[in-house]
Structures are given as C-alpha cells and as structure tokens.
Specification:
Elements (H helix, E strand, L loop, with lengths): L14 H14 L5 H12 L13 H10 L6 E7 L5 E6 L5 E8 L4 E4 L3 E3 L8 H4 L2 E4 L2 H17 L7 E4 L9 H14 L7 E5 L3 H8 L6 E5 L5 H7 L8 H15 L3 E7 L7 H13 L3 E6 L13 H13 L3 E4 L24 H9 L2
Parallel strand pairs: 4-7, 7-8, 8-9, 9-10, 10-11, 11-12
Antiparallel strand pairs: 1-2, 2-3, 3-4, 5-6
Bound molecules: S-adenosyl-L-homocysteine.
Length: 366
C-alpha cells in the first residue's frame, strides 16, 4: 500500500520539478521521454482534472502515474452564483476540509480570489474567516487546484478566461509561505498567469513580505492596513502587536527596493470605528511614501459584529480627503454580497464565533 503523503503532487510541484520527477518515473518504467511533455501539456494547457483525461497515455501508464504521484483534485461541493454573476465555489479536500474560491467578472477581466488556508488564525475583528477559526494550511496543490477547478467551470459557463488572481480568500497567505510561493510559481510558470496579474494580500507578516521580496517575479502585494496608527490598528488587526506599523513599513521599503514594485493598501471602512476623516491624513502620508493606491472597502456585514459599513457620503469624503492629501484612492463596490462571497465574508460553512480580540474590543468600546 502506497501512502499519499510521500508521493509528489503533480498539481503542486513547480513545473521544472514536475518535469524532472516525471522523466525519472518514465525512465524507470522504460517509457519514452516524450511522454513527459504529453503529460504536462494535458495538465497545464488542457487543465486535465484527472489522469484519465491524459488520453495519449496507455491506460496502464495512467494507473502507474497514480501509484507514483498524487494528483490533487478537490471535489466541488457547491457553487453559488450571485445576481451580479460573482460565483463562489465550495471545495472539499481529500481529508474532508472545506475551502472557498470566488470568481469575480468585471468589464475587461475575470478575477479569481483563492484561499491559502482552511480558516485563519489572524482573528481580525471584522472578518468572518477569523470568526470561523483556523484549521490548517493548504498545500500548493490545493491552492492551484482552486484555479484549475474554477477555470474549467468558467470555461463551461461562458465566463471566459481567468485574467487575474488574488490571494484574498480564506487565510493569511504569508503564514503559509512555502506552499504559497510554490503555488505562485506554478500559476505563473505553468499556467501562464502574468506575475503582475497575481496579487498576494497580507495582514502584514514581516518575514513573509521579506521572503516575497526575494522572488524574481513581480508579484503584486496588497497590505491590509485598516488603521494608520498602532493604537487603533491593534484593536482591529491583532497581529499589529507582533508586527507594528513601523516594522511593517520598514519591510515594505525593503520590498520596494528589491524590485520597484507597487504596493496597494486595503482599508475596510467601518461606520464610526475607523472612518474618522482625520485618519485619512495618516493613511495618506503612508500611501504617499510608497506611491501606493488605497482601496477603500465598505465593511461587508459579518453576523454578530453589530457593525455596519460607513455610509456612501462618508466613503466619498474619506476618499476625497485622501486625494486632497496626495494619495490615490478607490472606493471598491462590494461583489457577491447576496451569496456571502464578498471580502471578509468567506467562512466555508463553518460556524462563526467571536474571536477573543473582538470580545475585548467591544467591552472596551471603540
Ligand atoms: N489575510 C489576507 C487576505 C484575506 S482578506 C489579508 O488580510 O489581507 C482580503 C481582504 O478583505 C483584506 O483586506 C481583509 O482585511 C478584507 N476584509 C476582511 N473582512 C472584511 C469585511 N467584513 N468587509 C470588508 N473587507 C473585509
């Protein structure tokens, strides 16, 4: 009996390693090396979801592949389509764990939002994923598999090709560094998604930002700031205690210096919590230094918070104030709210319980 854990995963391996492993495998079996190219073309170009779709291979060789390799292919447990055509997929992993990905159609693009962990340990007070707890890291194959499954679904449903990928689903990508970096390489090098069209969104994990800065590819970085000062930010984003804003900004300076790459700041707008106009001044100062774009995300309701989004007038004023202080800002329109697919609403069917920081925060009043 061969156990799954020790078999290399054809879906998650970086393509040069997959090529090497396949070459050695076929050589051991006395099979000609051109089979490597055939196999990888089916997996990467045709997005084969099982070895049986590698039809060029004799059936015995397809079986032999499954003995030697794993081929991560989560099952589609459910798909929900919003009135705005945003589509949320619920994927069941081999161990039963559930995760989600979201397809967001735009006028000239199709963006896929993928998960990097099952749940999240960061416990941001305004985010449903944090309220659903942390279960485990995803493998590189499980991250890439969301793209493969969503891409096949999008093609079949007439959504067209996926043009952009954002790591903004469940989890904190930079707390799962090795698998996330491998998945970035696979999506870029094997599936041809341009590095500038792939965004890693982080709550601000300094060692992870430093590791990403070392990559030769120009992957984009979004930083979930949500407050311009330490006092307020630590109440919204507990990891601020470990990586306070000055240390975070230092790592962003190193990130920029390493490749001149643009950074985006995300700022969730919660009524009467972090939408005071004076906060826009601090935020603008930070954004200006990095020539960074600011995305203002109206708070998407999370049951149990009692919070609501800043009203449209306040969003406008806040954005204007940023602009008047020399920072570029966009107010993002929520997508897929009716199917709980918007930012911060993903919980993959898990029960929502307030994280400890939220309880403390509410007891202290904002
Ligand atoms: N852990 C990563 C990526 C996941 S969240 C990160 O923190 O960046 C993607 C974005 O949605 C983040 O900017 C996050 O702060 C934001 N978000 C979380 N909850 C939200 C909510 N209820 N309403 C609006 N945006 C939210």
């Amino acid at each position: 009996m061969i156990t799954t854990t020790h078999r290399p995963d054809l879906i998650g391996l970086p393509p040069d390693r997959a090529r090497g492993e396949l070459l050695a495998h076929f050589r051991r079996r006395g099979v000609a090396p051109y089979r490597v190219g055939q196999t990888l073309a089916r997996i990467y170009d045709k997005v084969a979801l099982s070895v049986d779709e590698i039809t060029e291979l004799p059936i015995a060789e397809r079986r032999a592949l499954l003995d030697a390799f794993s081929f991560t292919s989560p099952k589609l447990a459910r798909v929900q389509v919003s009135t705005d055509r945003t589509a949320k997929h619920l994927w069941r992993m081999a161990d039963g764990e559930l995760i989600e990905s979201v397809l967001i159609p735009g006028t000239d693009r199709l963006t896929l939002c993928i998960s990097s962990q099952a749940g999240c340990a960061m416990a941001c007070t305004f985010c449903a994923t944090g309220w659903s707890g942390y279960r485990r890291n995803l493998t590189a194959g499980e991250i890439v598999a969301q793209y493969r499954g969503a891409r096949r679904w999008a093609e079949a449903e007439g959504y067209g090709p996926i043009t952009n990928i954002v790591y903004m689903g469940l989890g904190e990508p930079l707390m799962n560094l090795g698998p996330v970096i491998n998945s970035l390489t696979v999506l870029n090098a094997a599936y041809g998604v341009g590095a500038r069209r792939i965004t890693v969104s982080t709550v601000g994990i300094v060692p992870g930002i430093d590791a990403l800065a070392e990559r030769p590819e120009q992957f984009k970085l979004a930083v979930s700031l949500h407050a311009p000062d330490h006092e307020l930010r630590q109440r919204l984003v507990p990891v601020e205690k470990k990586y306070p804003i000055p240390a975070l900004l230092e790592s962003l300076r190193r990130f920029e210096a390493a490749g001149g790459r643009r950074i985006t700041f995300e700022y969730v707008m919660i009524d009467d919590v972090n939408d005071d106009l004076e906060l826009a001044d601090g935020l603008a100062a930070i954004a200006r230094e990095f020539h960074a774009h600011v995305n203002l995300i109206p708070f998407n309701p999370v049951p149990g918070t009692g919070w609501s989004a800043s009203p449209p007038g306040r969003l406008r004023q806040f954005a204007d104030r940023l602009e008047s202080r020399g920072a570029n800002a966009t107010v993002r329109s929520p997508r897929g709210q009716d199917i709980a697919a918007a930012c911060g609403q993903l919980a993959a069917e898990h029960e929502l319980k307030p994280p400890k920081p939220f309880v403390q925060l509410v007891n202290r009043r904002v």
